[in-house]
Amino acid sequence: MWLSEKDDGRAQQAFLKAVDLNPLLMEPRLNLAYLYQGQNEDSKARMLLEENLKINPSEERSLVSVIPIYLAEGEKTKAVDLGKKALRKSRNPQKLTSLGSIFARYHFTNMAFSLYFKSLKIDPYYKEAFLEIGKLYGNLGELNRAVLFWQEGLRYHPEEKRFIELITQAKALLQK
């Protein structure tokens, strides 16, 4: 079900009231930031997410959400500093892989690889990390390395059709 603008307005008012009642409560602050992002009001979302990080500097959802805003606004140093922080502190393979993909999208390949490999260090079988590492290698023109990672992922996850599709595509490109 799609929310209407009226629903967004009611949700926004509820989140604002919750924040007023308890400014340190993270959930309504995050939900309000996500609502702002959905409304393309990144400056409001950014302000809330930065406040969240002042309250709890290790709050991963805020880190993951504010980094793409910084990158889109050209504030690369802030984004990289927060990426390094996440790399040091995070133990969540999903968040690390997600951040890696954000950095890869903005061509920060070293940071992306670092985040992906930490994800695999935490969970050596994490499927999405294998997929994303292979994609990054593929985008860098290193198809043989991409295939190796996808084959390794397929070994752990034989049910995952995406590995087979990507391997097939890469091998076809390699034969051209």
Task: Write a structural description.
The structure is a single chain. With 176 residues, the chain is an all-alpha fold. Helices cover 80% and strands 0% of the residues. The mean pLDDT is 91. It contains ten helices and no strands. Helix 6 packs antiparallel against helix 7. It has a domain at 1-56: Serine Threonine Protein Phosphatase 5, Tetratricopeptide repeat (Alpha Horseshoe), CATH 1.25.40.
- CATH topology of the domain at 1-56: the name is Serine Threonine Protein Phosphatase 5, Tetratricopeptide repeat
**CATH class group of the domain at 1-56:** Mainly Alpha
Summarize the biggest pleated sheet: none
Shape annotation: elongated
Please name the defining characteristics of this protein.
Serine Threonine Protein Phosphatase 5, Tetratricopeptide repeat, mainly alpha, 176 residues, 10 helices, elongated
Summary, kept brief:
This protein has 176 residues and is mainly alpha-helical. It contains 10 helices and no strands.
List the SSEs and their pairings.
Layout: H1 5-21, H2 26-38, H3 42-55, H4 60-72, H5 76-89, H6 93-105, H7 109-122, H8 127-139, H9 143-156, H10 161-175
